[in-house]
Target: DNA-binding transcriptional LysR family regulator
Amino acid sequence: MDRLLNIFITVVEEKNLTRAGEKLFITQSAISQNLKILERKFNAQLLNRTNKQISLTKPGEILYFHARQIINQYTLTERLIYELQEGISGPLNIGSGFTFGEYLLPDLISKFITKHPKIRPKITIKNSIRIANQVRENDLDIGIIEREVTDDLLQTTPFAEDDMVVIVPTNFINHNEADIRYLSDKTWIIRENGSGTRQVTDNMFNNTGINPKNILEFGSTQIIKEAVRKGLGVSYISKLAVQSELKKGTIKSFPLENYKDTRKFYYVINKSRPSTKILEMFIDTIDFKF
Model:
């Protein structure tokens, strides 16, 4: 049954029988036969198939959701037994938001691998909401995110803090620092919805009364820094992410009068997923470093 479920999951995610066959190294006709077996077993049509695309029926949605959980449990069981028999080694799937993932995670992973050379981390970098969703779906062992999430299936734990700062081009001049309207007239370059940085940026706008007339949305902190450096606008980002540029003088920070913003980094795990020794050691590394 697990083989049938794996074929079904691959077809759903690839949205194409040919691509699914190539990924699984089996023929398209073999995939079709296995899908028919599944549909006979559940006495339901699982997929809507046309020449252009494949989509899930309602019974198919139910099967896909639970099939993913079943396959993930198989994988986790194998890892737990392997740890018991062979010692601490194997993969660790880590997800992270962009700020932590690009500026802090590399050093953390380097220290972790040095101490545990038989563990093989696999890193995924996305915005915080997408990382939390992947932890929820058991696609990741742990996520490091830049905003708190509310989900009964997830355990979210704060472990570090991060100051936020307004960054401006080096030729930026404000003749009246107390005049928020001056900043409202500037082009603001901000992260996309779902990003932890976007959440604290929106909070800052609400708390200070800044109401930008023009907004550009970029999906990467690195691109935002470069856009500010070239004079396209101003932004509100992690001070950790911009330390090098501030030190070199390629951009500068701008103080918001009577406003200081410190956000938290969180690690998130799935409550329903049994913990592994590898995951426990990585969490210990996070707690020790921060």
About this structure: The mean pLDDT is 88. Residues 2-75 form a domain with the Arc Repressor Mutant, subunit A fold (CATH 1.10.10.10). Residues 187 and 233 are 5 Å apart (CA to CA).
